[in-house]
């Protein structure tokens, strides 16, 4: 029996939870309904009557059940949890939830950006990573992404960026895909996107699981301490399970087999008690160091290499409860980077400044008016007190005759903090002088140095995946001028990158940017392009998933056991026990659902078959011994399963009697192919290799089709 999770926010939400168990069906007004099958008619074969208020009540609600989906980040999955602060950073911030030992209820929503609400989880895309902290000082939202930089520098370009990536307006395709003309048209005219493009074309844009991706606040924010001193900060979420991705070929297939792959994975992990966890890390930069770097810390297309400013781990978030109701919680939750609490403030980053308007604005529309703060999921755990009243679907009942300030009739209440010398939100004091201009700072004009830093920091297989992704996306572009323009941008990042992508597209990369790219860039930066400053770092290990992972666990990994009737029971159970003791899951895949007979005559229930499942849904593959081998020898789907797993650089293990299957497959033996007959401690070798996630050496060979 699962222990119920308790947090102040969940206690509050519980008051809104409705349980229909053993309850009589009623109308929305609570009137008991006698017959829920038949409308009221003039005679049993006659027309329906207009007085059927029971039917109207039901249909009127049904007809209004859809609200506008989010204009971006429409598809998402959320969960409740707790954030626990472990370190003392009181010298940097007075935010109460960031004080050592504080435990704060959170609701976290992950999302894809471009696809509609019903699109696939495995689109090549940025993932949203939004956390709402229900603090005792009100709600604080950290609305970030799984990529630390962004496509554009100024909010003015945001609607254009999104229009370019969304399905094209005349025919509304492609869905949840950036591989089309309008996106690359925009990107190839906006060289400031170069760094972000490297990330989005890397495997970071196709995570293995929402539980295995990093989160970033992206912008530089400000922490403010009790005496009003500010410190610049970058927020990082580091997953305890490490950062892992699937390959693009897998992503495309997963979209077909299970387009809810990420959503279901998050849900199942929480239901199974495998609570996902992330450490919160901070990069702190003193105000004195604001101009110290070769890049501008207010430019959202730049990151601060971790080797330059280390990430300090200060706390941990644990997601431990699934929502009771998707619509009421995950759909109606409203995040806003402008939702700040005392101790945290925004900076002048022009992208962040623009966001502060947009979220509240879109939520007023999407959630049907000004009272969306009163929806249970959005309510702060401390009661709000103000003079706002009325509006669509107002829930709170404001008592008394006073709804204005200042007043004497209610003794000045609700009073603002300054009246009684209490702490309230104050914007961080900052000197501002300058002319009112529509202009971009020249300190934002270097577009390629950090794109190069990212590319150069990758391992060879990771670089190859970026080359493959760019080749795929640009091959889908119909207009050759767009392809040429983008390859010219790639040339500015790295010559080999441009050469290799160019080879796949039949393009000889140009040494210079396309004149049209320069023309548009010069409208932002007159005189563009410029000589760039020497970077502090040429590579950063933290930017490579392969180099930075600890690879120390196989927790929650799914291992496919390929079986058929007659499989040897010990060959299944021994490894299952070992894998489960390491926190992984063994899943039997057989020729049909229902009963599977073991060699000793005992039976087990099968839920997965070669028809419903493929290797792309699993992390590693094992073929046990037994009479099953004879059946599988003639089963084409078996070979497809193992060949494909091999092609995707996954680890495969073969029990003694199953090696005839290995011989008949297209697999070439390497360190990621583990045989019981050749390796005494094969089970442990298998587990150690799964920890590495993939056998990357195999990527270079690319011999097996998949
Ligand atoms: Fe958003 N973004 N965004 N964004 N964003 C929205 O707000 C916007 C940006 C992010 O799970 C919208 O309530 C502008 C950066 C996430 O509910 C909208 C700009 C980052 C989510 C909006 C940006 C994000 C959103 C749509 C450029 C990473 C999902 C629905 C100035 C730091 C939140 C909504 C959720 C959602 C506007 C750029 C992250 C339209 C104008 C950079 C995770 O208001």
From TrEMBL:
<keyword id="KW-0560">Oxidoreductase</keyword>
<dbReference type="GO" id="GO:0042744">
    <property type="term" value="P:hydrogen peroxide catabolic process"/>
</dbReference>
<dbReference type="Pfam" id="PF18011">
    <property type="entry name" value="Catalase_C"/>
</dbReference>
<dbReference type="GO" id="GO:0005829">
    <property type="term" value="C:cytosol"/>
</dbReference>
<comment type="similarity">
    <text>Belongs to the catalase family. HPII subfamily.</text>
</comment>
<feature type="binding site">
    <location>
        <position position="366"/>
    </location>
    <ligand>
        <name>heme</name>
    </ligand>
</feature>
<dbReference type="Pfam" id="PF06628">
    <property type="entry name" value="Catalase-rel"/>
</dbReference>
<keyword id="KW-0376">Hydrogen peroxide</keyword>
<feature type="domain" description="Catalase core">
    <location>
        <begin position="26"/>
        <end position="413"/>
    </location>
</feature>
<dbReference type="GO" id="GO:0020037">
    <property type="term" value="F:heme binding"/>
</dbReference>
<feature type="binding site">
    <location>
        <position position="355"/>
    </location>
    <ligand>
        <name>heme</name>
    </ligand>
</feature>
<dbReference type="InterPro" id="IPR024712">
    <property type="entry name" value="Catalase_clade2"/>
</dbReference>
<dbReference type="InterPro" id="IPR011614">
    <property type="entry name" value="Catalase_core"/>
</dbReference>
<dbReference type="GO" id="GO:0006979">
    <property type="term" value="P:response to oxidative stress"/>
</dbReference>
<keyword id="KW-0349">Heme</keyword>
<dbReference type="InterPro" id="IPR024708">
    <property type="entry name" value="Catalase_AS"/>
</dbReference>
<comment type="function">
    <text>Decomposes hydrogen peroxide into water and oxygen; serves to protect cells from the toxic effects of hydrogen peroxide.</text>
</comment>
<dbReference type="InterPro" id="IPR029062">
    <property type="entry name" value="Class_I_gatase-like"/>
</dbReference>
<feature type="binding site">
    <location>
        <position position="158"/>
    </location>
    <ligand>
        <name>heme</name>
    </ligand>
</feature>
<dbReference type="GO" id="GO:0004096">
    <property type="term" value="F:catalase activity"/>
</dbReference>
<dbReference type="InterPro" id="IPR041399">
    <property type="entry name" value="Catalase_large_C"/>
</dbReference>
<keyword id="KW-0575">Peroxidase</keyword>
<dbReference type="Pfam" id="PF00199">
    <property type="entry name" value="Catalase"/>
</dbReference>
<feature type="binding site">
    <location>
        <position position="109"/>
    </location>
    <ligand>
        <name>heme</name>
    </ligand>
</feature>
<dbReference type="InterPro" id="IPR020835">
    <property type="entry name" value="Catalase_sf"/>
</dbReference>
<feature type="active site">
    <location>
        <position position="73"/>
    </location>
</feature>
<feature type="active site">
    <location>
        <position position="145"/>
    </location>
</feature>
<protein>
    <recommendedName>
        <fullName>Catalase</fullName>
        <ecNumber>1.11.1.6</ecNumber>
    </recommendedName>
</protein>
<dbReference type="InterPro" id="IPR010582">
    <property type="entry name" value="Catalase_immune_responsive"/>
</dbReference>
<feature type="binding site">
    <location>
        <position position="70"/>
    </location>
    <ligand>
        <name>heme</name>
    </ligand>
</feature>
<keyword id="KW-0479">Metal-binding</keyword>
<feature type="binding site" description="axial binding residue">
    <location>
        <position position="359"/>
    </location>
    <ligand>
        <name>heme</name>
    </ligand>
</feature>
<dbReference type="InterPro" id="IPR018028">
    <property type="entry name" value="Catalase"/>
</dbReference>
<keyword id="KW-0408">Iron</keyword>
<dbReference type="GO" id="GO:0046872">
    <property type="term" value="F:metal ion binding"/>
</dbReference>
<dbReference type="InterPro" id="IPR043156">
    <property type="entry name" value="Catalase_clade2_helical"/>
</dbReference>
<dbReference type="InterPro" id="IPR002226">
    <property type="entry name" value="Catalase_haem_BS"/>
</dbReference>
